[in-house]
Amino acid sequence: MSTESLAGTIVHMPALGESVDEGTVTRWLKQPGDRVTAEEPLLEVATDKVDTEIPSPVTGVLQRILAEENDVVVVGAELAVTTDADTGAGSVNAAPVPSVPAPAAQPASPPAAVPPVPVTTAPAVRSSPEPAPTPPVTAKPVPDSDGTVVEKLPRIRQTIARRMVESLQVAAQLTSVVEVDVTAIAALRAAHKDDFHARTGIKLSFLPFFAKAAIAALPQHRVLNASLNPEVTEVSYFEHCHLGMAVDSERGLMVPVIRDAHTMSIEDLARAIADKAERVRTGTISPDELSGGTFTLTNTGSRGALFDTPIINQPQTGILGTGTVVERLVPTRDDGGLRIDVRSMAYLSLSYDHRIVDGADAARFLTAVKHTLEHGFTAADLS
């Protein structure tokens, strides 16, 4: 968002997503006097949902910074002023930017017309041999005498902390765990992963199978694809599944939402999961993509955990955690005889809101997911 004036183009805080009305300036990527091109990132802004970069609306020179780092700025407020690359000024048809007042004339001198003073004294265009200014170096926290380092939590981590506590305070949360044999899926992956990668450019993991099985079970267990109102007097049951996918990133845990996941194939889900995860990790996910989920999946096994007790993503009623897949010696019965086989095994942990979901409901849902994972997929699901 920007407006043009005689003195330059004012960069405004853009809309940051539904229900987001302010953001915190975390870092300026350019300094006054730096040349910028249109759509080049000017600064980083943190909201309760996501960290994002604000681009320059024009090609030119950053003339003045109007919001300092750590300032909380509302949507529509002024962030900076830039000048046109060629003329050093913006459009002559727009209302002027308020200029710095001119100094008072000396009494002994006759009054003279004072030209408008630009909003900054930085040169409009830097000469080519002149080096670009070095961005300020952020001071690192200094350890105290016993080596303890105190750092301020990033805003997004503060938000995560607050929401996790709020979720536990709001809902009566329990977790049920089942063990699932994914040997058949492991065999499918081994047989088709090369062709799948050649066709899609995506590695075929266990995660889209887990997602597909969970989504398939939700219509028969709709209490887990639902939302309670704050007064706990009404419940909304959803026909669609907007699947939240917990993604680990350097900025913190985020949960992008895959819209209409119930309409997707294994390949569609694999593409969507890879796309959302990549854009979370590169900081290009939009705030609107982080809300509106009806059920959440978290891959707690991605770092080797056997299982976890995930916290519900409010106002949802359930979240499914998938543990790491490990090969184990497992006793099985075949034609009445006992045998020991090497099987690919994993744990599924379902945290649910016990205010509306009973333990039997959770167990039935997990059993349905388990059955699909053990018997429900063939090579045709990958074509």
Write the layout of secondary structure elements.
Blueprint: E1 2-4, E2 9-12, E3 22-28, E4 35-36, E5 41-46, E6 51-55, E7 60-65, E8 72-74, E9 78-84, H1 155-170, E10 173-181, H2 183-200, H3 207-217, E11 226-228, E12 235-237, E13 243-245, E14 257-258, H4 266-281, E15 295-298, E16 318-322, E17 326-334, E18 337-353, H5 359-375
Structural overview:
By secondary structure, the protein is of the alpha+beta class. The chain is built from five helices and 18 strands. The chain starts with a strand and ends in an 8-residue tail after the last helix.
Compact summary:
Helices cover 20% and strands 26% of the residues. The protein is α+β, with helices and mostly antiparallel strands and 383 residues long.
Q: What integer is the average pLDDT?
A: 85
Ranges where pLDDT stays below 50 over 5 or more residues in a row are 88-128, 130-137
- CATH class of the largest domain equals Alpha Beta
Per the CATH scheme, the topology name of the largest domain is Chloramphenicol Acetyltransferase
What is the CATH-assigned architecture of the largest domain? 2-Layer Sandwich
Largest sheet: 7 strands, mixed
